């Protein structure tokens, strides 16, 4: 199959690309589209015959459920059931973070195909912010199931070129919307009667979630607000996505093919041969946080800095592209330096741990 790539630089190109994407999706074909997080491989979420092609193109196992992207707010109540005690919290999160990189896991309605949820009684939904993705959703008028547009277990694509290198010849169309804004997959939270649990760290940080919850509880003025807030904080702190996990327990991975090892200390000089114990003949690359003055980096075949100015947003936005560049450099080993683990750094460290765990 020939994979077409359509640009969206001019209004005419954008209109043509949206039209072509909507036509392919309406015909039951999968299409790669930019979102504000990473590129997604989309198909009509209510058509199992279309959704199955996502699994085939990605070689994704059927036990791994997909995120459903909504054309608008009205679709939420058609696809999920919101319990009375969760309603205020859901509304608060939506008002604050949609459209945007927050995915909610909620009990599903029967309309959602089993293939999308992997047979679970919940479904993951979000309302994306990217103008190209939103234009396609509006044109089609149907929700789109879309996992990241990489082959299963590999690094998520943040440019159209990454998508081509993952899925060329396997899908009919890629729409190019430039490099994605956040560079990390959406934050996923499960809504529970006691509050919420973060299932995947992402661009929306635990601090932001906590603030939104507290504001909502103050606004609604419920007499139990104080107790509820403490409960939410407690469930947040117990969220699996925020606890460093033993590598063996990791379910998913974001792995380069080259072995990647995570160093231990933030901002410490890297005495590479000592730390890594690598024979000097080996070709070693460095995925660094930011340059440490006076340190000699000539030992490395290639160095990528996540942010010279120690900006976590820049580090998140460029992490996967830099991991890919190192992966394509023919190295024997990639050493990664940790970033400060607060705010967005929590999600970055989650991805680095998963990439490293793949090679333990
Ligand atoms: O930013 C994103 O979320 C991107 C863009 C394309 O929207 N999508 C994305 O999808 O990262 P994917 O399939 O690569 O990751 C979705 C994750 C999977 O780990 C899956 O297990 C989890 O969401 N998931 C989906 N439905 C779930 C459910 N009902 N309960 C728990 N986890 C769920
Ligand atoms: Mg993925």
Count of DSSP H/I helices: 12
Characterize the biggest β-sheet: 10 strands, mixed
Shape: globular
| Poorly predicted regions | 246-250
The share of residues in extended strands comes to 15-25%
CATH homologous superfamily of one domain, by name?
Threonylcarbamoyl-AMP synthase, C-terminal domain
> What's the gyration radius in Å?
21 Å
Strand order of the largest sheet: 1-8-2-3-7-4-6-5-9-10
Q: What is the β-strand count? A: 14
Q: Write the element-wise H/E pattern from the N-terminal end onward.
A: EHEEHEHHEHEHEHEEEHHEHEEHEH
The hetero compounds bound to this protein are: threonylcarbamoyladenylate, magnesium ion
What's the CATH architecture of one domain?
Answer: 3-Layer(aba) Sandwich
Helix content: 25-40%
Keywords:
binds magnesium ion; Rossmann fold; 4-stranded parallel sheet; 37% helix; alpha/beta; 10-stranded mixed sheet; 360 residues; binds threonylcarbamoyladenylate; 12 helices
Descriptive overview:
This protein is of the alpha/beta class and 360 residues long. It is 37% helix and 16% strand. It has a domain of 98 residues: Rossmann fold, CATH 3.40.50.11030. The radius of gyration is 21 Å and the shape is globular. The chain is built from 12 helices and 14 strands. The two termini are 37 Å apart. About 1% of the residues have low confidence. The chain binds threonylcarbamoyladenylate (TXA) and magnesium ion. Threonylcarbamoyladenylate binds next to strand 5 and strand 6.
């Amino acid at each position: 199959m020939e994979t077409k790539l359509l640009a969206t630089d001019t209004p005419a190109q954008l209109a043509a690309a949206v039209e072509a994407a909507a036509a392919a999706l309406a015909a039951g074909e999968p299409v790669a589209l930019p979102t504000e997080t990473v590129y997604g491989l989309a198909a009509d979420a209510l058509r199992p015959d279309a959704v199955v092609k996502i699994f085939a193109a990605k070689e994704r196992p059927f036990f791994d459920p997909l995120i459903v992207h909504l054309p608008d707010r009205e679709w939420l109540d058609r696809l999920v059931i919101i319990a009375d005690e969760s309603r205020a919290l859901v509304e608060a999160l939506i008002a604050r973070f949609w459209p945007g990189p927050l995915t909610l896991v909620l009990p599903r309605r029967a309309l959602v195909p089993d293939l999308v949820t992997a047979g679970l009684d919940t479904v993951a939904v979000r309302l994306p912010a990217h103008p190209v993705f939103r234009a396609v959703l509006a044109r089609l008028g149907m929700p789109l199931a879309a996992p990241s547009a990489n082959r299963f277990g590999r690094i998520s694509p943040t440019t159209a070129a990454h998508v081509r290198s993952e899925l060329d010849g396997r899908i009919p169309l890629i729409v190019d919307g430039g490099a994605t804004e956040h560079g990390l997959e959406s934050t996923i939270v499960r809504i529970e009667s006691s509050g919420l649990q973060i299932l995947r760290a992402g661009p929306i940080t635990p601090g932001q979630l906590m603030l939104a919850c507290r504001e909502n509880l103050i606004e609604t003025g419920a007499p139990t607000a104080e107790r509820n807030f403490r409960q939410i904080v407690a469930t947040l702190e117990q969220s699996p996505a925020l606890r460093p996990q033993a590598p063996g327990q990791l379910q998913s991975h974001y792995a380069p093919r080259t072995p990647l090892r995570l160093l231990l200390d933030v901002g410490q000089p890297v005495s590479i041969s000592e730390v890594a114990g690598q024979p000097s003949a080996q070709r070693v690359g460095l995925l660094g946080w930011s340059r440490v003055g006076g340190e000699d980096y000539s030992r490395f075949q290639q160095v990528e800095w996540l942010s010279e100015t120690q900006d976590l947003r820049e580090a998140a936005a460029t992490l996967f592209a830099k991991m890919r560049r190192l992966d394509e450099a023919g190295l024997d080993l990639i050493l990664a330096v940790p970033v400060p683990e607060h705010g967005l750094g929590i999600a970055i460290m989650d991805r680095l741990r998963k990439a490293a765990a793949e090679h333990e």
